[in-house]
Amino acid sequence: MYWGIQKKLKVCVSGKDDRIRFSSEDIKAISAYRKGIRKYIPRNFARKTRPIEELPRWKATELRLDLLYICPVSYKPFLSVRRYKQLMLLHVGIKLLVNKDSCQSNAMYADKLLRQYVTASVKLYGAQYVSFNVHNLIHLANDVLKHGCLDDFSAFPFENKLQKIKNLLRKSGKPLQQIVRRLDEINRSNFDTHRSHLNNGPQLSGFRCSGSLLAQYQLRTEQYKKLHFKNSILTACIPDNCVFVVGQPNQIVVIKNFFKFQGQIYVLGNRYLKLDDMYTYPLPSSRLNEILASQLSPNLEAFRLIDVLWKAVRIPTTIPENGSFFVRPLLNHGFFKLRFDWS
Question: Which of 67, 136, 200, 247 has the fewest CB atoms inside 10 Å of its own CB, making it the most exposed?
Fold first, then answer.
């Protein structure tokens, strides 16, 4: 599985070459950082970040989280420029092939990046680094052209489901019959709820009377703590409180409140004033909506829900926090584009 390539970081953690292995101080610093950002990992992810010393025991969902969302910021201070660029070739290439909306149009460019990654890996870490999994990267783009985005033909969803299926068993006898019955019960109980969400769109919950509001919305306004979608949720609290909003460029907003005014749902929050690139190779990160955001405005602004583009993962660049965050949209989580999720 292509997420397993991220385990190749073990050459930096426990490898024998002193030139490329992280020092013990670096390993402690990376693990402390990963522990510090746990509270910023949205509930869309089944697992939070673990120390890098536990890399051999990371599950597939943890490797996916690290490769697609964490690695551009977590390893940057500890890698040389050449090694960081090599890692970004993998990050960008896989990110392009995972995106359902544009994977096929970007497949050939991703193929170029992944081939460069394999070549750079040999130069940096030696021929032994190019295992069967690494070699398979040069075939991924062709697979995407034939079958769609990587998640559409990956075994990842099946592996991710095994623990849930195991927990459905109540006794050792007749496991298949038990699983079929439990899944049927779950599907029946959830059918009306899912149908309601599909028909009625986003659902507000957690009614309150004392949230933040702008003066022009004080009268006849209903305020709420949460906004539910078909497969996800937005709240006014970390870690599910960051979104991208339509703009030139797209704006990043930290949510403080939800309210309903004259029949429309609004998101109230603070916007980041400074948006920069997290990396510039193999392309500026802003082209992928991966942003280094800072200078959070003290002024609250209201945005119509139809202008919200994506739920975002917002991770501080340092622990302790210094006000600078790496922000990027969630990929393929049901409302990657919110405006199209309830149509």
Answer: 200
Query: Alpha carbon of 325 to those of 24, 32, 242: distances in Å?
Result: 26, 17, 11
Please tell me whether residue 279 adopts helix, strand or coil conformation: coil
Work out the number of other CB atoms within 10 angstroms of the CB of residue 46. 13
Between the alpha carbon of residue 321 and those of residues 52, 99, 156, the distances in Å are 20, 30, 33
Chain center to CA of 127? 31
For residues 207 and 204, give the distance between their C-alpha atoms in angstroms, rounded to a whole number: 8
- Distance in angstroms (rounded) separating the CA atoms of residues 126 and 11: 11
Q: How far, CA to CA in Å, does 11 sit from each of 41, 56, 252, 292, 308?
A: 26, 11, 36, 28, 41
pLDDT digit string (tens) for 203-230? 999 998 888 899 888 888 999 999 998 7
Question: Which residues have a Cβ under 8 Å from the Cβ of 316 and sit 6 or more positions away?
Answer: 36, 37, 40, 322, 324, 325, 326
Please give the full DSSP string across 184-248, using - where no structure is assigned: HHHHHHHHHHHHHHHHH--EEEEEESSS---GGG-TT-EEEEEEE-SS-EEESSTTS-EEEESSS
* pLDDT per position as a tens digit, 25-46: 999 999 999 999 999 999 999 8
The phi, psi pair for 270, rounded to 5°, reads -105, 135
CB of 200 closer than 8 Å to CB of 192: no
What distance in Å separates the CA atoms of residue 238 and residue 138, rounded to the nearest whole number? 38
Instruction: Give SS3 for 159.
Output: helix
